[in-house]
Design brief:
It comes from Nocardioides zhouii. The protein has about 140 residues and is of the alpha/beta class. It contains 3 helices and 8 strands; from the N terminus they run βαββαββαβββ. The model has no long low-confidence stretch (mean pLDDT about 90).
Length: about 140
């Protein structure tokens, strides 16, 4: 049997602010909160049922947002790719910008099919093509 990806950890200055952004961006919820550490993920997951699900196959990981004193200095080596499921790519980009994202420059040519944004602390992520009915084409 292999390991499962169960959590993603993201260092930041303000876990509460990033939790606010990412829960709104992903339609997730705060699962655990303590000073300097917030866990977010899909809501409604009972611990016993989640453990059974993880043992039987992949599940969506949760995200830990941990306060650290260091600043982000360079482009992320790992980033998230988001795919809109109920709106166009442009509409999703506009929604994420309204939540506090910003456009990010990481050396794009301008010909990409994705849009590079950054969360409120500068962590880059991409908005891919829409998976919404009427927008998605193979």
């Amino acid at each position: 049997m292999a390991s499962r990806l169960t959590e993603i950890s993201l260092d930041c200055h303000d876990p509460d602010r990033l939790a606010e952004f990412w829960t709104a961006a992903l339609d997730w919820a705060v699962l655990h909160h303590e000073p300097s550490l917030v866990e977010i993920g899909p809501s409604g997951r009972d611990d016993d049922a989640l453990l059974d699900a993880v043992r039987s196959g992949p599940v969506a990981p949760t995200m830990f947002l941990a306060a650290v004193p260091e600043d982000k200095v360079v482009k992320n080596r790992v980033h998230f790719d988001l795919s809109p499921i109920d709106r166009s790519q442009d509409e999703e980009v506009d929604r994420l910008l309204a939540l506090g994202a910003s456009h990010a420059e990481v050396g794009q040519s301008g010909e990409e099919s994705w849009v590079v944004l950054a969360d409120p602390e500068g962590n880059e992520f991409c908005v891919l093509r829409s998976l919404a009915a009427g927008h998605f084409a193979l």
